[in-house]
Design a protein that fits this description.
By secondary structure, this protein is of the alpha/beta class. The protein has 2 domains: 112 residues, D-Maltodextrin-Binding Protein, domain 2, CATH 3.40.190; 104 residues, 3-Layer(aba) Sandwich (D-Maltodextrin-Binding Protein, domain 2). It contains 9 helices and 13 strands. Helix 2 crosses helix 9. It starts with a helix and ends in a 9-residue tail after the last helix. Keywords: Signal. InterPro entries: Solute-binding_3/MltF_N (IPR001638).
Length: 247
């Protein structure tokens, strides 16, 4: 039989092992190149609507969160492996089996940008039949969009950054390219690249959104972060200042 002091040590060790993972500083990964929703500034700091939501949570809870802007592909990989959370995450059937989700942080509208003089009537996904559409590597634009790609309705051309995607569009290598938050999002991308900015009048945003895209914070189910997510949800409800894209 163990003496009382040893039992005490075992008790506290069990308590520590049973402590939820958010007792330590939580890491949240996000896209470093998806302006104006989430991106990395010139100092390497996370910015955008998603970052504002995390900062409000810190003020609300008194907890410190480590934000890590990186490529979306890497952020998603790290999140699925349980290395941290991922913010700006859309919901799909596949992802619902992997992640626990927060409430909606921000509802974004995804639009299509085209070359001036190359516009076309767009109302539904069927209007994209046979076209080459530039999309963000690793991103999902909803189950309907993903299914249309798998069924071969149109072809998705992936790029790691918005700048690469719009350069392809400028050179006539795409029929259209996705941009977040319409004209505001397009302008934010153009400002980051001298060539694109010099040709800003060559781009047109189609009027109808490609998809309305609610964005969330997610953690791999293996991390057991539902308590943290519940507190994050409380901070969203307590925020009296609506989250907005800054022009």
């Amino acid at each position: 039989m163990l003496r009382a002091p040893q039992w005490t040590c075992v008790f506290w060790l069990c308590c520590l092992l049973g402590t939820p993972s958010y007792a330590a500083e939580v890491i949240i990964y996000g896209d470093d190149d998806y302006p104006p929703i989430m991106y990395k500034d010139q100092q390497g700091q996370a910015q955008g609507v998603m970052t504002d939501a995390v900062r409000h949570f810190e003020e609300f809870s008194g907890k410190k969160v480590q934000q890590e802007p990186t490529s979306w592909r890497r952020a998603y990989e790290y999140a699925t492996r349980g290395k941290g959370g991922i913010i700006g995450l859309s919901k799909t059937k596949e992802r619902l089996a992997i992640f626990d989700y927060s409430d909606v942080i921000f509802e974004d509208n995804i639009y299509l940008a085209v070359r001036r003089g190359k516009t076309f009537d767009f109302k539904t996904l069927n209007d994209l039949k046979g076209k080459l559409i530039g999309v963000h590597l690793g991103a999902s634009y909803g189950d309907s969009f993903d299914s249309a790609i798998k069924e071969g309705l149109f072809i998705a051309d992936t790029s790691t950054t918005d700048v690469i995607r719009l350069r392809k569009l400028l050179r006539g290598r795409l029929d259209a390219a996705v941009v977040t938050h319409g004209q505001i999002g397009l302008d934010a991308i153009l400002k980051t690249d001298a060539e694109l900015l010099a040709n800003k009048n060559e781009f047109v945003v189609l009027a109808t959104p490609l998809v309305r895209d609610p964005l969330y914070l997610g953690f791999a189910k293996s991390m057991k972060m539902t308590t943290f997510l519940n507190e994050f949800n409380q901070s969203l409800k307590a925020n009296k200042t609506p989250l907005m894209v800054k022009k």
